[in-house]
Amino acid sequence: MKFNKAGITLRKWSRVIHRDLSFFFSGMVLIYAISGIVMNHRNTINPNYSVERQEYAITETLPVQSDFKKEDVLKLLVPLGEEGNYTKHYFPQENLMKVFLKGGSSLVVELSTRHAVYEKLTRRPLLSALTKLHYNPGSWWTHFADLFAAGLIIITVSGIIMIKGPKGLWGRGGIELAAGIIIPLLFLFL
Length: 190
Description:
Largest sheet: 5 strands, antiparallel
Number of domains: 2
Radius of gyration: 28 Å
Protein name: PepSY domain-containing protein
Shape: elongated
Distance between the termini: 48 Å
Transmembrane segments: 21-39, 140-162, 169-189
Helix content: 40-55%
Number of helices: 5
Strand content: 15-25%
Mean pLDDT: 90
Keywords: Membrane, Transmembrane, Transmembrane helix
InterPro entries: PepSY_TM-like_2 (IPR032307)
C-alpha cells in the first residue's frame, strides 16, 4: 500500500513539474523549432536576409570604364533611392562595374550593353534573431540554453513517469519511446 501511495505522489509531482517547466520553456521550444526548420532549408531560404533582384536597362549614355567617377555612380543610384547608401565601386572585369551599398545591397552594370542588376537585401528581423539565438550568440545565452536542455530532460523524464497503465512506459508509451530513439539512430548510422 505504501509503494502505491509513493507511486501516486511521484506521478502527481511529475505532472506538476512537467506542466510548469513545459509552460516556462515553451518559448524556447518555439524558438529552436522555428529557427531549426529555417536552418534545415537554408539552401532555399536565407534566414537573415530577403533578397529582391531587379534587372533593367539603363537608358542614359554611360561613360567609358576609365572615365567613370563616383558622381556617375551616384546618378545611377538615384532612381533606386540608394544614392545615400553608396560605399564603393570597382570593375571586376572589363566593362563590368559592381557597386556596393550599405546593408549588403549591390548594383552590377554591364557598361557596353547598359544592362543592370540591382539586388536589395532586407534584414528579416524575426527570423534572423531566432537563428542568431540558435547559433548561440554568447556565454550568457549558453547558460540559459544549458538550463533549457536540463529542463527538457526533466520534462521528458516526468512525462515518462506520470502516465501509467497501457498508455504508459510499459505499454504504448514505451513503444513510442523506443521508436523515438531508434529512428534518429537509424539516420545516424545508415
